Amino acid sequence: xxxxxxxxxxxxxxxxxxxxxxxxxxxxxxxxxxxxxxxxxxxxxxxxxxxxxxxxxxxxxxxxxxxxxxxxxxxxxxxxxxxxxxxxxxxxxxxxxxxxxxxxxxxxxxxxxxxxxxxxxxxxxxxxxxxxxxxxxxxxxxxxxxxxxxxxxxxxxxxxxxxxxxxxxxxxxxxxxxxxxxxxxxxxxxxxxxxxxxxxxxxxxxxxxxxxxxxxxxxxxxxxxxxxxxxxxxxxxxxxxxxxxxxxxxxxxxxxxxxxxxxxxxxxxxxxxxxx
Length: 276
Fold this sequence. Notes:
mainly beta; 2 domains; 7-stranded mixed β-sheet; 14 strands
C-alpha cells in the first residue's frame, strides 16, 4: 500500500469523527459534518464472496454516510470510523466513495486498526466547499444466533459523532416468518411498498448516544436471499411469477459485493415479495 503524507486536514478529519467539537483554528468551523448515516442490517442476505464454509447463516451490514465540507477550502484527507472488528468472523466486503457529482463509485483501499477498532481510508477526490462526500462500507459477521430454525440478533449502535439524520433498516430474508423487532418500528415506516423492510429514523443524534435493537425470526430455508433471487432470474420467461425485474438484476450482478453502492436497495425498498 502506498505511503501517504498526512497533512493538517487529515488530522482534523480524524478528530471530527471522534470528537465532534474539533474545529479549524483558522476559521473556527468544523471540517466535515456528518449530515446523514444510513445502516442496513441484512440477516441471511448473502455470504462473503470469499467464504468457503457456508454453514453459519451470514449477517451483512452496510453503512452509507453523507458528510459536508463546511469550510471555504477544498478538503482531502483521511476518514476513520469505528467498526465491530471483534465480532465473530468479521470481514470487510466492500469500501467505496463517490465522485463529487455522485456519478461514479470508487472502490478504495482501507486500513483496519484492530487495536483501535477502526477502519480508515483516504478520500478519492477533493471535497469542494459546501459539497457533500458520500461513502459506503459493507461488512459481514457471524453474530446471528441460531437455534434450529429460530434466528436472533442483538444490534447495538453507539454514535461516533453528531449525526443530522440517522436511520437503521432491517431487511427480512426471503421466506422468513414471525419476524419481530424490538422496539417495534412505527407503522408508517413499514408499509405496503416496503414489504420486508423495517426502518427507524432519528433526527439529531449526538456523539456517544446509543440505540439498541433486537430481532427474532424463523426460517427453515438455508439459501441466502441473493442466491434465491439469482435462481428466480433463471426461471423460464413464460412463468408470470418469475418475470425478470431489472431491479433484481442489479443484485444478481454484484452477487453480494457492493450491494449498497450498486443500488440494490432500490429493489429491496420497493420490492414485491417474489413468489418462489
